[in-house]
Amino acid sequence: MPCIQTKTTVKLTSAQEDLLKVKFGKAIELLPGKSENWLMLTFEGNCHMYFKGRSEPDMAFVEVKLFGKASRQDYSKLTHELTSILHRELDINPSQIYIKYEEVSHWGWNGNNF
Amino acid sequence: MPCIQTKTTVKLTSAQEDLLKVKFGKAIELLPGKSENWLMLTFEGNCHMYFKGRSEPDMAFVEVKLFGKASRQDYSKLTHELTSILHRELDINPSQIYIKYEEVSHWGWNGNNF
Amino acid sequence: MPCIQTKTTVKLTSAQEDLLKVKFGKAIELLPGKSENWLMLTFEGNCHMYFKGRSEPDMAFVEVKLFGKASRQDYSKLTHELTSILHRELDINPSQIYIKYEEVSHWGWNGNNF
Q1: Cβ pair C21:A49 closer than 8 A
Q2: d(CA B103, CA B5)
Q3: How far, CA to CA in Å, does C19 sit from each of A53, A59, C28, C67, C79?
Q4: How far is B58 from chain C (nearest CA, A)?
Q5: What does the angle CA A101 – CA A80 – CA A44 come to, to the nearest 5 degrees?
Q6: In whole angstroms, what is the distance from residue A65 CA to residue A40 CA?
Q7: Structure letter (DSSP) for residue B86
Q8: 3 state SS for chain A
Q9: What mean pLDDT comes out for the span C40-53?
Q10: At the N or C end, where does chain A have fewer CB atoms within 10 A?
Q11: Which chains touch A (3 or more CB pairs under 8 A)?
């Protein structure tokens, strides 16, 4: 029950979103018990964003929302991996990528809460 | 002071959003002390989403954000109701709907925090 | 490591976003230790929103996400200031502005978590 939501200034193509989908689906396994089997993704390209008072063509804000919790170490690994993916595939400078985590206590799927 | 934010792959019409507004405005009463009188809604249709590695035409990610807390039982009732509404009105398969809850401690309205 | 995300029904011009960027960059200093140097902003205009069962042309939902915590008093000051800015610059009625705060424990930048 994780969901990774990506907002970026980059104008994303369908091919890029498909590729990120595959990479993120593998990366999420860095959190114990999580896999692509329960992973939802949302992508928003061409976003209007600023960082440090500047508007740059390469920027991303990624929110990882998960049911339950994981360790600091696991979150660190995932930050490293997601940043690397966005750097490689979208040419976004890692210094312009924020990745934040939200641990969720109440999460519903298929009409019922876990 | 709740806000329900809906992202879906479905391309929403104004009529559908108006209808969801009415239904969600009633459903929120399942959380004690909450009503349409303080409910904000945001709708985003035509979103780029994936679930379980697939891109399907019917998918939704719903975030219920509320000032304060409610019980597990009340959240479950609301999940059931919101899922039913999205299934009936937008023909989204319940197995492709995530609904997550965020309990908020600091919430401002009209220039002041509650 | 704060991020302020603004959704509004107002159709934002680039000039308005640039202006809000400057004002928000100053306002964030109301939270101790925060400044424009680490502030990310996202703006979404022309959003589909409802409040109290109505669709109005002037409405905003603002999410302030920050690494760590601040005091109730500081959040109140920031709510007051952000509301004033949106009222002055976008002519949004303060009674149609929600501002909510999320205190984040795990936040990554540049490939590593803080």
Answers
A1: no
A2: 14
A3: 11, 19, 14, 25, 18
A4: 19
A5: 60
A6: 10
A7: H
A8: CEEEEEEECCCCCHHHHHHHHHHHHHHHHHCCCCCHHHCEEEEECCCEEEECCECCCCCEEEEEEEECCCCHHHHHHHHHHHHHHHHHHHCCCHHHEEEEEEEECCEEECCEEC
A9: 98
A10: C
A11: B, C
Q: Is the ipTM of this complex over 0.85?
A: yes
Tokens encoding C56: 């109005």
Tokens 């690397």 locate to A84
> Which residues in chain C have their CB less than 8 angstroms from residue A97's CB?
108-111
Yes or no: say if A5 and A60 are a contact pair by the CB < 8 Å rule: no
- As a 3-state breakdown, chain C gives helix, strand, coil percent values, each rounded to 5, of 35, 35, 30
Residues in chain A within 8 Å Cβ distance of B52? 36-39
Structure tokens at A86: 């966005």
pLDDT of residue A67: 98
pLDDT per residue, tens digit, chain A (114 aa), is: 899 999 999 999 999 999 999 999 999 999 999 999 999 999 999 999 999 999 999 999 999 999 999 999 999 999 999 999 999 999 999 999 999 999 999 999 999 999
**Per-residue confidence band for B14, with pLDDT thresholds at 50, 70 and 90:** very high
Query: What confidence tens digit (pLDDT) does each residue in B45-67 have?
Result: 999 999 999 999 999 999 999 99
What is the reported pLDDT for B25? Answer: 98
- Sorted by where each starts, the structural domains of chain C and their CATH numbers stand as 2-109 (3.30.429.10)
